Amino acid sequence: MTDLAEKVIAGDPRSIARLITQVENNAPDAIETMKRIHPHTGQASVIGVTGVMGSGKSSLIFELALIYRAEGKKVGIIAIDPTSPFSGGALLGDRIRMTELSTDEGVFIRSMGTRGMMGGLTSALYDVVEILDAAGMNVILIETVGVGQDEVDIVKIADTTLVVLIPGLGDSVQTIKAGLMEIADIFVVNKADKPGVEQTVAELESMLDLVNTLDRRTPIVATSAKEKKGIQLLIMKIAEHQAYLKDTQMFEQRRRQRYEAELLEIIRKRLMDFIFDEKKLKTTVDCCIDQIAKKELDPYSAADQILGKILK
Amino acid sequence: MDIAEKDIMEQIRQRHIEWEHQLYAKAIKENPERKTKFKNLSEIDIKNVYTPEDTSDLEYLNDIGFPGEFPFLRGVHPNLYRGRLWTMRQFAGFGSAEETNKRYHYLLGHGETGLSVAFDYPTLYGYDTDHKLARGEFGKCGVAISSLVDMELLFHGIPLDKITTSMTINGPAAIIWAMYIANAENQGISKEKIGGTIQNDILKEYIAQKSYIFPPEPSMRLIVDTFEYGFKNVPKWNTISISGYHIREAGSTAVQELAFTLGDGVEYVKAAMKRGLSIDDFAPRLSFFFNAHNDFFEEIAKYRAARRIWAKEMKALGAKKTRSLWLRFHTQTAGCSLTAQQPEMNIVRVTLQALAAVLGGTQSLHTNSMDEALALPSEKAVRIALRTQQIIAEESGVTSTVDPLGGSYYVEWLTEKMEEETYKYFDRVERLGGVIPAIEKGFFQREIADSAYRYQKEIDTSQRVIVGVNRYQLDEQPSIPILKMDEKGEERQIRRLQKLRTERDNSKVQSYLQQLRKAAEGDENLMPFILNCIHSYATLGETCQVLRDVFGEYKEQAIY
Amino acid sequence: MAKKIRVLVAKPGLDGHDRGAKIVARALRDAGMEVVYTGLHQTAEQIVNTAMQEDVDVVGLSLLSGAHMTLFVDVAVMLKEKQMDDVLIIGGGIIPQEDVPRLKKAGIAEVFGPGTPVEEIVSYIKKNVKR
Questions:
Q1: Which of A241, B224, C22, C45 is deepest in the core (most CB within 10 A)?
Q2: Cis omega before residue B478 (within 30°)?
């Protein structure tokens, strides 16, 4: 285990990949390794990229990565796609847009399924961010699925969250979930080569006018990944945001939020594993469920029983 | 319908109901139906019997018409095969130009009446044989053509003023066409005399075949350049073969094949008109290419419906000349229906598929060889495929009359149905903003992937029987002789290229490539510039690279 | 949580026929596997690097252009060089029976020709994954 930790810290790609698999599969060995690499984390800037399906997130991430690479930075990319709730499988196709980066030694790309546990970000994601961080990545770009809870949860883990839209979605800005609009540190109107950009930008501006004035006006950047336009500007805005966070001490606040979320997630996972472990509480749980179904027990009392066994 | 006809129809309707409840009901008690639904490959439910009720809405003169008359349902030529048989045009190409030239002479010697060129993957993507991405791919699925030298060898001994050639090339179509033209000119045959087709249909590349190079906009520009150059300078040439074959091979249904192909066709016409070309100038030289798949009558109905829909659409777009309304097509039997198991059975499949194409009135036909699920066709296999066409032509009697299935209740009903379904797709695409926006949204690709997946599931669950694959299997391994190619071919070709690059006038080449670059950045017609490059022996790769630099390369999104 | 089988479905070289690869990818997903699909025109280097980063259990190569003897073997050799011997390599497409022995010798565990039911590939993977 220590060997693996050392290799990960040294940036060995095979070891990084291996450790990611271990944390995804809840391998008990992984915990020791994760403990060992934690002191080496904290220097990577984490950028979340979220937005509707079809907004070109993958292409955008590709273009951002190219520029970061040109700046000499090491880039980690996590591309998340939905796990099928029926089969438990997933089609992970975001790498298609990043083919040219597959052989760049300064880039590490990993595709992950949401492996959905009660909605929200895949629980291993926190670990994967830490792993890439410890391995020496300067920037970690996370592409989320673009539907559901993930979009809003990304803000727990990212330093800067980009919300990507495309022009011409009609009076789309209103239809996009309220939560999504609030989490944006930067709005990106991608596919700006298409008609309707000005309108979308205007709609965003007027929506921002209505929001309580924070000391920072959320910037809106129009980009076209296809034509490679607006990317430099976006990078600048990301850097500005990160500087803003550091200047206002919000950076520490955000990091605290992330560690809190991570800690809670680890606790939640352990709790759930414990409860659903057949050698531990699963039989009790199953029994309770049977009783609830027969109306012999209500869910609250069942919870009391189960928690009682843990918190004793 | 007048009162007498209405009365007869009512009698038929009554009798039908009785028949259904009495005779038919009794029959299915003794012989229960083998399936709950008899669907064709487009998921259309096929009834137990078709009657005049199913065609009662059709008026012969307006809806069906005579062969050679609008709406051309029964054909574009009044006397079709009575006057001239379809062109027997076998798609061929492998290894080096010399090897393929030999195959062309073989096929011509055995009675084929038109040539059809298959290019290898590097050529399809505009790479010379010595490009690093060409590794291992030389000549494997077609002939390698890297320069005019190869084109000269490919057609050695073949009179280009006496025979027409179809070339399956898309991304670099304009460049390969320039090579053909240049070669003919070098042989003393002027542009006005040569005839043939370039596939040159980029929209279906994005949708299905995937041998695109540049993004949609510059690709369309190049295509319209060829239309313009063609009708002005090479009048006997079909500058496009708007294709459904590959869309079908990628897994679409017959209706999708029909709808997506004709939709692409309209898109090309609109693009050319946008440039200011008059529709009647270029439309007569648009041609089509369809698949001939397994469901016999569905395919026939598809070809007929295609003609009628195209004629109507072209009229709506303002075409006045009769020839502008014609849908002329080449057909190839379905490659994806061939099995590796018991390959001789493919001869039977191909026969049925070819027959459907003939009954559908195809202008030109390629029949697959039995071994094509295993390798490229051997001489014997391709000869049998050719003989299949000749037997249909000479022995079956189906050529004696035009559109023999016209008037069949089933076929006319099915033709109507397919037209209806096609227009539904036209509407959907329009709501998505048109063909190119729909491509970018992945609409066609998703429809095709879904159909392909569904088809595979039907086979895997034995809902759909493929003889030899999921029923009537044999344990033996196929042991038919497979085509072997010359292993030294790649080396030879690379040396040939190196020699060419030293022996030609390189300053001329560079100069013409520069001129092409400038023209590509502007909006002049690129054909003359490409021709200059080719005449000076610039290679395919070098010429294409200039265009790659200016136009960029297309990257697809994945749709499963 | 049960370990998921991770598969890379790759199309090496210039071959553009992706109907089969996509169907297999979808079927593997329906069978509960995580499938990384990298699209068309992959070089051996790209395939191997992807396999490494994604820590896949299986690399599935699809080819219908006839270039399998060069391209499949390239991938197998490179995986071996990187000491990724625990990755199961399988292939499919238009591959003549007579080429299969040589491919197996190079490290391709099994070749699935035309007409193979998709279930057969799923079972094979489940039974033969090395990790």
A1: C22
A2: no
